[in-house]
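Researcher: Good morning. I'm working through a list of sequences from a screen, and I'd like to move beyond sequence-only analysis. For each chain I'm collecting a predicted structure so we can compare shapes side by side. This is the next one on the list. No need for commentary yet; just the structure.
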Amino acid sequence: MPSRWVRVRNALLGTRPWMILWFVAPTALAIAMDFAIRGGALIVYPPLEILNYTGSSFAAAGFWGGPLWLSSRLFYARGRVWRLLARGLLAVFVVTFVLPLAIFCFPGQAIYHRVFASYMARDTVRLGIALRGTLGDWLFAWGSPLVVVAMAAIGLLLTWGLMRGVRRAGRYTRRTLPIIPVLGFIGAAACFWIDFVESRSLQAAPPDTCFIHGLMHALHDGVTGKGWVRRGISLRTPAPLPPLPPKAHRPNVLLIVTESVRADTSCSDPPPACASQFLDPIAGDRVSLGRLTTQSPGTFSACMLLWTGLPPTVDYRTAHSAPVLWEVAKAEGYRTSYVTSQNLRYDDFGAFMKNAGIDELVSAMTLGDTKDAQIGAPDERATARMLDVVRRTPADTPYFGVLHFSNTHAPYKAADDLQPFSPHSTDALGSVDAFHNQYRNSVLLQERTLAAFLAELRAMPRWDDTVVMFVSDHGEAFREHGALYHIHTLYEEEVRIPGWMLAGKDALTVDQRRGLGTYVQRRTYSQDLNATLLDLLGAFDARARLPYAAELTGRSLLRPASYVEPTVSMATATGVWEPDVFVYGVMRGDRLLMGTSAQTWFCFDIPTDPREIAPHAASYCGDMRQLARKAFPGAVPDD
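Model: Good morning. Structure tokens for this chain:
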């Protein structure tokens, strides 16, 4: 007679417990596929991400295993009527659950990663369908119809093999109590529903986990009503450009975008107005881009505004169809590149860059040594790669490149031999001064990396006809108004950013240099940067013919400033980012009108209140209140 332990085991796991491995075989296959696709990145994950990966794998195993375990019983129903009913239920289960997951979790994820260097994850499914209209339209946007056919064929084969294994396992588990499969599935579904898996940053999860997370999140947002809010990054469908005949003089243009650097931490003005230990010896002839202000304090939004020239008020579809700088440069005959130490897997940022007219795209996952999802790959690897790109560009072809840094994002990478600001700490919950010092040391390290890069660039034969523009995406808060980091508010610490230009002797005309000098003491904005880059590329005079021309209101900083200060819209929320708190504003010169849809709006006069601690009533900003009502309908409460 079997012992009590054997009876309990048989009741819970069946007479051959190892057969339940068939029920979690999909996750085992997913892990194997993952190592085949990105094994080099997985083996250098930090301990926390390894823990996330392990937990995410268990969640996927529960999500697959519970239904497969229970479905195995349907193969062994007795009686003609019950057998027919069981076969019908089994067919429905295979068609609605197993087959779709087999298609998207395996061939679908492999193809998607091949195209975008990341997996479909938390927001991918929701945003992809929201932009394309239907699942089919979204799929065909990946490539030719043969891609979809191949996915379906492989998915069918996997489904057939899996269900054969499930049927075999069911012989030994059909009499078990359904405790483990039911609890396993409920626990796994709960993890996906409440975002208790990691599929957005380093994607510390197998491909099946990433897709299931995206599917469950789309369902979650649909049930809660949040799915109707279309904010986030997805695959673009660029609007066609008009003919843009190349101009006779096309200087090389390099845009350098840093991460989270605020204006008071980096020198935009040349010496003696501002002294920079590393920049002054190699870039002492830089020219400030004015009192530069980003119109949205987050990387995705700031980049979208910079790439497209749109204001933060445009909707999701517009943000995903407006031409970006690379496309304009391609139309003007430039060779284009985007080299970044940023992690483009995060929230599908890489999908936004896919159809952007970029000849050579290199991100953190290619550069390697990405041990922290926020810090990204080492910036010095990005600078070395960009120098290689420049050297390989034919001498008779102008280049347009974007070099995008990442290491100054929290927790702020620093070097042991360069930490003059002390005490310093990576503990965000400890001393804010020590945390701020860690940040300042990180910015200093990046300036050293940048100076070394510029030294090599200026030594190249093509330097005389090259323009470098350096800006930050947004600033960083250190409790000035209670918050840390960014994407919280529109206060100066989050929106005032450094910006300067460096040009070879033949790159700019005398008039362009003179025009640039008229903005040194004036407030400038994200949209102005885009307009200036269009001017450098030779497309500014054709801007009225570009798609969404009415929204392209930025000023070229290469053309003399007028006496009229523009009024610009600002927001923490844009068509590509949905923050926790929506803060809106309009700015004119040094007056900022800021508020939320649920709070009183205030007017700040920055010259008389540089710390922004003594707000005036909204009426102090005059007609800016009406302009805010027009820019953000429903966000400005009635008087």
